[in-house]
Model the fold of this input.
Amino acid sequence: MDMTKLLLSSFQNKTSSQTPFWFMRQAGRYLPEYREVRKQAGSFMNLALNPELACEVTLQPIRRFGMSGAILFSDILMIPYGLGVDVEFVEGKGPQLSQIQNAQDLTKLSFDSFDRLNPVYEALDRIKSELGNETSLIGFCGAPWTVATYMVEGGSSKDFKNMKKWMYTDEESFSEMIDLLAEASIQYLKKQVKAGAEVLQIFDSWCGVLTKENFDKYSIQPTKKIVEGVKADFPDIPIIGFPRKCGSNLPKYVRETGIDGVSLDETVDLDLTLGTIDEKVLLQGCLDNGLLLGNEEKMLIEAEKILHKMKNRRFIFNLGHGVMKYTNPDQVGVLSEFIKSWKK
Ligand code: CP3
Done:
């Protein structure tokens, strides 16, 4: 592991007066230069599967704001695409996928088309060679539960009705799909590491709708399997889990998945939570992304509170969820400069 990089060394017990930072969705529509390249690419998939353009948009926020981490420009829906699902991002509607809703549909999924994802690894390779030696390259995937929600619902959902219907009518085939996604995630992440990813994040954005028992089955167990699978080949790669809005399941998730770091969302009460997580586990988060839409002073007061509470922990500053498209880039600049200048 390259210990000269602030973000990577934060996983060890190395003290630096500086706090590493990056922001979820730091590349995206709030940046005019992103909108320009996105227009040129024609569609989101064309952009994500074009190594040169994906590299360019990954680097855009780094050039402007100097984050300590560059997250690969891609999407969690690349895995369904690699398994043969049609994936399209429709303006104003979000992702649209050909649906997988029962045991019969599962036979449509196959690893035969997994090479469709080769441009992703090529993008990582390019980014790695263009990144300065201070910025860490972050690869990622969605957690099986969260990725499955898009496949089963055919896109974004509010009630996850098709997921719950399948889960509660034919648990065996439902578990098969989750296992298949875990296996695909292991292969995908390993290839990302081979191509140059130095840290990995597993996004479980929708695990917050699971009961305690199902959280264990469909969030903790598959995540644990992915962590073990990747670490069998790459024991030193740091892996961050993001069990968004998982509430009181958080300590168990951290203990049982084997992740090296946990990304916290904005609803987490840091005073109650810090004592429940082993100090060896890195924390990441958790400024409310809505503060970037408000006034500067309020945003910086809240950022400082987080920096202060985390100052004795292994910590990467981030938001509780992604940068919204309505965000003024100048506000991201103000926040970035504040974190860079803040010393423990
Ligand atoms: O900068 C980064 O964070 C890296 C790139 C990245 C994107 N999506 C780019 C993107 C990452 C890490 C993701 C993860 C992702 N994608 C998640 C997990 C994190 C989270 O937000 O909870 C989820 C749930 C998705 C699924 C997804 N992708 C949806 C629901 C949408 C549509 C919503 C929207 O804002 O339109 C996307 C599209 C998407 N992924 C965009 C970007 C920049 C916007 C589409 C575009 O530019 O055309």
